[in-house]
Amino acid sequence: MAFNHAKLLKQPIKALLLDISGVLKDGDIPVQGSLEAVRTLQSMGFPFRLITNETLKPKSTIRNTLQMLGYEVNEQDMQCPVPFLKEILIKENLRPHLLLHPRMFAEFEGIDLSNPNCVVMGDAEEYFHYDSLNECFRKLIAMKNPILFSLGINKYYLDDDGLSMDVGAYCKGIEYATGVKARIVGKPSKEYFLRAVNKLGFKPEEVVMIGDDIEYDVGGAQECGLRGVLVKTGKFRPSDELHPKIKPDAIVENLQQFVEMYIKAQDTKQLQGVSA
Amino acid sequence: MAFNHAKLLKQPIKALLLDISGVLKDGDIPVQGSLEAVRTLQSMGFPFRLITNETLKPKSTIRNTLQMLGYEVNEQDMQCPVPFLKEILIKENLRPHLLLHPRMFAEFEGIDLSNPNCVVMGDAEEYFHYDSLNECFRKLIAMKNPILFSLGINKYYLDDDGLSMDVGAYCKGIEYATGVKARIVGKPSKEYFLRAVNKLGFKPEEVVMIGDDIEYDVGGAQECGLRGVLVKTGKFRPSDELHPKIKPDAIVENLQQFVEMYIKAQDTKQLQGVSA
After folding, report:
1. Residue A276 pLDDT
2. Mean pLDDT for the stretch of residues A171-198
3. CB 3.0-4.6 Å disulfide test: which of A57, A166, A203, B82 passes with A61?
4. Which of B125, B130, B171 sits opposite A126 (nearest CB)?
5. Per residue, what are the HEC states of A139-158?
6. Pick from B163, B174, B175: which is nearest to A141 by CB?
7. Do A173 and B177 touch (CB under 8 A)?
8. Which InterPro entries match (chains A, B) (predicted)?
9. Omega before residue B248 within 30° of 0, cis
10. Is A102 at the interface with chain B, CB within 8 A?
11. What is A8-53+187-270's CATH topology?
12. Are A25 and A31 in contact (CB under 8 A)?
């Protein structure tokens, strides 16, 4: 455990961005201590927002799962890639070909899916296969101005039976074969982080991102001027602590430890304030 | 058509390396003029060798197909990735996990496939899917010293119903997710080209490679000191002529045109020799 007070607390923390998978829950199981941690934050009136790259389930389903697990959160507290993407598609008059889990198709109601002029990839689990990937490849090489969206670019995530490859791996293959560089909708894209920060009503330097992905939660947030904290839950691997480039502002056992240590640091500060 | 005599004929051509798919045949159909071209080369006693990244079929099957189409070639004239890989596996005491078309498994007779300490990927068509790719990913991240072989790193090839993604796309995804850089067995690896040149008994600068892959046939050969000629058959796309980095020593309609123009150039030279 490395809780670098000096670095993390160099300035006040006014709000948090919390990853969902690996921080609040693993599959349908709450991460140890996270229910208590979120309740503590809520009882303190401490602002936070949930920010996820999850594209296997609609936002409403993720909210339902979280509520079922005991988290009192609602959709307005959450940021997911698909609604964000829909805004882009509408604004830029784009008609997507979708490589997504079929349960996500209903989320695209109102979007023209005929005669596609872009390709959208999200995590698709067993729907990633030779034919579906080839279809994306062929559509892209036939487009005059090919546009490829990837909902996140994560390398892997923690599945029920171990780590599994995420959309990033499949997207990199399509990028390689087509020569088309994907536009990322989700972490670590700057506009995605900054949207969440704006919704909270704070400046990037006032916000701390807490996630289990050293590169795209922690590194991505740091790139945007936030502080980034790595939890040792979810897909965390010991080698993450030795990442050659990304140095988290803190590494904690889990979200609960972060919240406890933050409160302790605040108490100490207050005591120092009283004694000064 | 761009047949840059000056560049291509700056020094004598003593032997040829010929790609199979896209140059001699597309699927089970001979490329127009190639049967005649190969017969002409054979009747001239002009040395050539077939060099392919094909891993969907055993060498013996490829030879049978070529013979059925009318090419009088035998296995000694051909270089395929799998036999080359087998030499490496034996030499380095490696036990592969195979992501290949199942019809290739018999080619690994005599190779220990238990408790794998490396992963081998080749074109697998519909056997590229979520579970098979995830299996490679999981085996690699569990290895202390992960080794990944890719049989070629091609982006796409011409299938019966259009262009299809090749092993390179899937390999790049695995590389991205695992952080392991693949060792390429096949074109454009230097040792693969130089093996073929050595078997011909010439120096790289005396040999011309003829292929339909601008990057891995033409560019790869040029990197090894050979000259590289692009045919406009197989997976050739008009954009290949505008490749920002790779400039073929010649671009020809097909193999037959190359052979005819080569013979014409030789005749002209001889005539010039006579008149001088």
Report:
1. 41
2. 98
3. A57
4. B130
5. HHHHCCCCCEEECCCCCEEE
6. B163
7. no
8. HAD-like_sf (IPR036412), HAD-SF_hydro_IA (IPR006439), HAD-SF_hydro_IIA (IPR006357), HAD_sf (IPR023214), LHPP/HDHD2 (IPR006355)
9. no
10. no
11. Rossmann fold (3.40.50)
12. yes
User: Do A15 and A46 meet the contact criterion of CB atoms below 8 Å apart?
Assistant: yes
Query: Measured between beta carbons, which residues in chain A are less than 8 angstroms from residue B172?
Result: 172-173, 175-176
- Domain extents in chain B: 8-53+187-270, 82-184
Which element (helix H / strand E) includes B207? strand B207-211
CA distance B257 to B17: 16
Instruction: Determine the residue among A121, A131, A133 to mutate to test chain B binding: the one whose Cβ has the most chain B Cβ atoms within 10 Å.
Output: A133
Q: What is the pTM of this model?
A: 0.93
Q: Residues A18-39: pLDDT tens digits?
A: 999 999 999 899 999 999 999 9
**Do B81 and B98 meet the contact criterion of CB atoms below 8 Å apart?**
no
CA torsion A170-A172-A177-A179 (nearest 10°) is 140
Would you say domain B82-184 falls under CATH 3.30.390.10? no
Q: What is the pLDDT of residue A6?
A: 63
From residue B46, alpha-carbon distances to A206, B37, B272 in Å are 74, 11, 22
Inform me whether the pLDDT recorded for B192 exceeds 90. Answer: yes
Residues B112/B95, Cβ–Cβ less than 8 Å: yes
Measured between alpha carbons, how far is residue A248 from residues A18, A157, A211, B148 in Å?
Answer: 15, 19, 10, 30
H-only helix segments in chain B: 5-8, 34-44, 59-69, 81-91, 130-142, 167-178, 190-200, 220-223, 255-275
Extract the tokens encoding B110: 């005599």
Segment B148-161, tens digit of pLDDT = 999 999 999 998 89
Residue B161 to chain A, least CA–CA distance (Å): 11
Distance CA B255, CA B23 (A): 7
Distance CA B138, CA A162 (A): 8
* Rounded-to-integer distance, Cα B94 and Cα B86, Å: 9
What's residue A183's pLDDT?
A: 98
Q: What are phi and psi of B175, to 5 degrees?
A: -60, -45
For residue B118, report the phi and psi dihedrals to the nearest 5 degrees.
Answer: -160, 165
* Distance between CA atoms of residues A194 and A210, nearest Å: 15
Nearest CA in chain B to A126: B130
A174 interface with B at CB cutoff 8 Å: yes
Q: Quote the Cα angle for A50-A54-A59, to 5°.
A: 70
Exposure string of A183-221, with b = 16+ CB inside 10 Å and e = fewer, is ebbbbbbeebbebbbebbeeebebbbbbbbbbbbbbbbb
Beta bridge partners of B273: none
3-state secondary structure of A263: helix
Residue type for position B103: R
Identify the CA nearest to B240 among candidates B207, B208, B217, B262: B217
